[in-house]
Amino acid sequence: MGCGTVGTEVLRLLQDQPEEFAARTGAPVQVTGVAVRRPHKHPEVPEHLITTDATALVEGDVDVVVELIGGIEPARSLLLTALKSGKSVVTANKALLAEYGSELYAAADAAGADIYFEAAVAGAIPLLRPLRESLAGDRINRVMGIVNGTTNYILSAMDSTGAGYSETLDEAGRLGYAEADPTADVDGFDAAAKAAILASLAFHTRVTATDVHREGISAVSPGDIAAARSLDRTVKLLAICERVVDEDGTESVSARVHPAMIPRSHPLAGVGGAFNAVFVEAEAAGQLMFYGQGAGGAPTASAVLGDLVAVARNLVVAGKGPRESAHAQLPVRPMGGTPTRYHISLDVADKPGVLSQVAATFNEHDVSISVVRQQGRGDEASLVVVTHTAADAALKSTVDKIAQLEVVREVVSVMRVEGEPS
Ligand code: NDP
Ligand code: HSE
User: Fold this and answer.
1) 110-124 pLDDT tens trace
2) CATH value at residue 345
């Protein structure tokens, strides 16, 4: 179902090497039908396969349904119909999984069917299967990375060539990276859905997209990029999912998506274009890094086809893939209580007492300063402060208060800092 950027490539690759798929699976893999909205736009689909009736297709004589439509409806209803009648499902639909994942798992479980979704996070990169299966015996503490190709493509271009925001977004759309509605990418919805999926798998806890604190890149300015460069840092949109343990041992899960400054020496800083990269920190395994093409037709089709082979193999041996694992059910921590660090760049009056007023404001909010850099220019000065770790709410209130100081002419840039010792 769906024959757009990803579906076209899935169909092409399946039809290119049917014998290979049969050999790898242990039975022939045949395309029964291809559901689209506008059949006249699809000369690549053989006429006898194409249909606009997706419901009839999933209700028909098929073993596996591959959903590459995107969005919530009609994808949700179609997949529930498929699963309830025992048909296994492969989907790349992170928006749907992040909101209705549990409902889909339950339907699959009740009918003894499979649901696989490797392509939903980080395109071609094998990431979800390692979390779901390979690391199932370990304790994961943190998952952090770049999971949206479109915004990484835009930020990389802004950093390296100074290219404008909208022209780069148009280009990402032309290359097939952007979602049908690209605000899903730039406003962080796509990355937040992926963060919800990652956090759910990593911490055996149901985390939905609404549990994820979300900030996109539309407010990232050339000033932010320049401020980062002046400190040998770069700006990336990060998804960060972590297990937070309080002093009394209480555990919770924090899941957030926001732009952050990272040192240029950090491995994520070199991840350019539509590439994605994700770090996983597990207790026994230590640090793992997953890197590759995070968007685009063929890379995503690779992950979809891997799932299709896995599901077909299960069918051949009457087996089943992993079920939902949500036994831990840790509480989700609000963003305000999540420990973060800030980089704050200010234009201030260049006169005695300015630094002490700014420092006093940090002190009032119990926020400790790590780095201060001041540079005079005429009757103004540029003042850069990088904090130590503090509760995000305390950092935010500090910035709000600083912005009101008479000696502060402008808050030029405020951004969280990641990837360096706190
Ligand atoms: P496209 O918008 O390119 O394609 C969507 C397809 O769905 C089109 O062929 C469209 O038909 C079809 N469609 C829409 N509504 C219906 C309907 N009611 N019934 C039947 N078919 C319908 O999307 P993508 O290929 O980019 O994305 C597909 C999925 O993969 C999404 O969930 C996306 O988030 C995910 N994904 C995409 C990646 C990418 O890089 N593009 C990477 C990873 C995941 P028609 O062509 O006739 O309009
Ligand atoms: N729009 C998504 C991105 C596609 O840019 O990463 C891959 O999920």
Assistant:
1) 999 999 999 999 999
2) 3.30.70.260
* Segment among 74-83, 106-115, 152-161, 256-265 with least mean pLDDT: 152-161
Per-residue pLDDT at 53 exceeds 90? yes
3-class secondary-structure state, position 74: coil
Query: Can 194 be counted among the known catalytic residues?
Result: yes
Q: Which residue, by CA, sits nearest to atom 43 of ligand 1?
A: 123
Catalytic residue among 194, 320, 396, 401: 194
Residues with CB under 6 A from ligand 2: 123, 148-150, 177-179, 185, 190, 294-295
> Is 170 a member of any domain?
yes
Range of the domain at 385: 335-417
Query: Do residue 110 and residue 16 come from a single domain?
Result: yes
Q: For residue 12, what is the domain's CATH number?
A: 3.40.50.720
Query: pLDDT by residue (tens digit) across 155-176?
Result: 999 898 877 777 888 888 899 9
Residues 316-327, mean pLDDT to the nearest whole number = 95
Mutate-to-test residue for ligand 2 from 155, 179, 181, 189, highest number of ligand atoms within 8 A of CB:
179
Q: What is the whole-number distance in angstroms between the Cα of residue 238 and the centre of ligand 2? A: 14
Asked if residue 289 and residue 301 are part of one domain, the reply reads no
Sorted by sequence, the CB contacts under 8 Å of residue 241 that are 6+ apart come out as 142, 143, 144, 195, 198, 199, 202, 203, 207, 253, 254, 255, 256
Mean pLDDT computed over 132-151 = 97
Q: What angle do CA 237, 238, 244 make, to 5 degrees?
A: 150
Q: In this structure, which ligand is nearest to the CA of 155?
A: 2
Kindly state whether residue 193 falls inside one of the protein's structural domains: yes
- Structural domains in the chain (count): 3
